[in-house]
Structures are given as C-alpha cells and as structure tokens.
Amino acid sequence: MFSHPPTVYRPFMEGVYRVSAGLFRLGAQSVPWREDGQVEGHTFALDRDYARFVASKVAAHRRALHEYAGEAGLTPELREATLAFVARTLAAESGGVMTWDGRRFTNRALGWGADLGLRWGSVEGLTRFGAPLASLVAGVTPLTALDFLGLNAPEDLAVIARDPQEGRDWLAAAHVLSPQHWDPRDKLGRDFVAVHTPVAGSGPMNATAPRLVEAVITRGPFVRFAWGVAMSDRLDHHPVALPDEDRAGETRFDPNRAFLRVERQTLTGFPPAHGALFTIRPYVYPLRGAVATPEQARPLAAALRSMTPEQVAYKGLTPLLPDLLGWLDEQGTLKEPGGQAALHSGT
pLDDT by residue (tens digit) across 94-112? Predict the structure, then answer.
C-alpha cells in the first residue's frame, strides 16, 4: 500500500515570509522547497500518513460535516468536470489501490466502492469489503460524490467558479476537513478577494485577483505552498472543533512539542466548465526534524522576523515568537560537524 514517507518541504528557506500566489507550474517547474529539486506532477500525495488523514477526516465527518463542507452555486458542468478529474487522478496516482471505470470508484485500502453520478453529485450502491483500513470508514456514510471522493483523498477539496459573462468568481464547493483555524462556511459563495482578505498581508495578491483567477482556470495546473509554526500536530483545527494546545492562550513555545505545518496546494482549471479545483494537503513535521541544521534554522528565523505584527498574530505566533526566535538563534550558531561555529546571520 502507501509506504513511502511524506515529502519534506521547507518553504521558509529563502528567509522571507511572503503572502503571494507563488505558483509553480505542475509537471514543468521544479519545486525549490524540495532538497532534490524534483519536478512534481502529482495532484494527490498518497504516502504512509494516509491512514492518519482518513481517521482525522472521518472524525470531523462524524462530529459535524455541515461545518466543513457545502456548495454554493456549483453548476452541473463544473461539478462533473471536478468529480471526474478527482476520481480518475486518484485512481491513476494510487498505484492500483484505487480504481475508476467512469461510473464506479473503488478503494482497496479502505474496502469500499460506490457508483458516482458526476453531473448531479450522487453516490449510490455503496458496498464494503475486507481491507487493511476498512475499520477507519466502517461507521461513516458519504452523502454526496464529492463527500465520498474527499474521504478517499488526504487532500481537502475546494471548487472555484467564474461567471463567463460577468467575470465574477466565487467559492462554489468545499470539502475541507483539515482546516487550519478557519471555517469553510465563512468562505462559501464569496469571491477570491473576500476569501483572502482575512489573511494578513494579502492586499497585493488580492489586487491581482482577476488575473490570478484567469490564470488558475486557463493556464494551469499549478502547485503552491503556505507554512507556519504550530504547537500541535492535529490536522483538524476548525474554530469550533475540540481545542488543543495550538493557539491556546496558555501555550508557550517548546521545541520538543512544536511543529512546522506546510500546506501543499494544487490548482487545476477546467476552462469549458468555467472553474477550477483547489486541493490542500497539510504536512506536519516535528520542528526539530524540519530545522535540523544551522543552515535551516537561520532562514526560518529570518523569515519569522520579516513578518509584520499582523502576520505574526494571524499565524497565532504572538505568544510564541520571542522564545521561538531565541531557540532558532541558538540552533543557528551550533557548531558544524567539522568543528567550526556557524555564522549567525539573523537580523
């Protein structure tokens, strides 16, 4: 099954925190955040964390699916294009674990299959069978085709639509079961600018919204990354989910309990259907592993120092930053294996 370790991404290595589109052409441009500089062509990342994602998604689904998923003006054409892409791409990238014949999707890891009505989003004929991870989904019943496919993928799914006559765009569907301190219900039906206005420092990016949405729909697919430091490795941080240590008022920085959270996001356009699919896959690494050398500690410290106070607050780092920077500065001056002290380049 899916046994390879998750890819390690370090988007902070340029030493500056940016709020920008930051698009790399999927399948054509190398990703600088990978140490091997590999060109990525995949949409879905199926690795040994797969079971963890499914378990977290099922828990959110059972708790309150309506807080994580919904639709707003999703046309039948865009629904069909999106669901067909997700089903065939998951199957193609799963190494045979998942199959899709144009009507029925089967997952041999989770032990279930269903007939999917792509145009209207129906899920019918759900069957279950013995499989390595069948127990994870034993108590959950998917409500729609998007819900079913979303439970089979580690990535969260969102659909962007654009009116071909008026040019306005909006978030037409969301199945986001691993949100990082935001509520998908606040975004449904809203345009790109409204969706991103709460993001501190998003003004320059929002100013390019019409061109950016046009590029996403007609010139992709693309991949981009976002990152932050968290004090919990939980995947689901919906504002009304059960609280944990991340962004709790009494939580203080501890390098042994801190994590680097990186989101790998892909954008795939469907021009004839006037929309695009947006996927979000969180990667949560122990901070000591993600920042294992002075050469990694120094740019992270520089990137954090480049944040505005508003960005620090938006990322939930205000109470953590002094101790976090102190720890990174110590790591940045540790001796190299050859015995020479690393030069400290923090500001």
Answer: 999 999 999 999 999 999 9
